[in-house]
Structure formats: structure tokens, C-alpha cells
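The protein record reproduced below.
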Amino acid sequence: MPVNHDLYQDLKVSKEEIQQRRTKDPLLDSLINKYSQADAEVVKAETAKSDAPSDDQLKKLKEHRLLVKDKIVKQLQASS
């Protein structure tokens, strides 16, 4: 069963710390919003029955989510 990825666990950063940094960094806030949207699209695609995307489409969604996560990591490092 598909589940949302826990971004905070993946980044090894607490939710509270991310929330504090988001308020001070509009780019980070935007990236985290994009990640949440991309993750929701992956979960929706993985659970779709009648209108399920092709494997290629699902792979592209996952790659997009990973790209956004990589940008988040870079932004966290830059603002440290």
C-alpha cells in the first residue's frame, strides 16, 4: 500500500526545525510545498485503479519528487 514519504525523517531534521526555517526562507517554504504536492501525486498514481498511469509516467512523477527533495537538501545546506 503506497504511503506518503516522511520528508522530515528522510532529511534527518525535526518537523519543528523545518517549520522555523520555512518561516525565514521563502524558497525553502516553496520547495517543501512543491514536494508535498509531488508526493501526493505519486501516492495518487500508485493507488489509481481505472486511470492508473503507465510505469513510465509513474517513474517520471517519482523522479520529479526526488528532484524537488534534492533542491530542499541544497537549500537547507545553503542556509545553514
Remarks:
- The chain has one domain: 10-78.
- The chain has a mean pLDDT of 91.
- The radius of gyration is 14 Å.
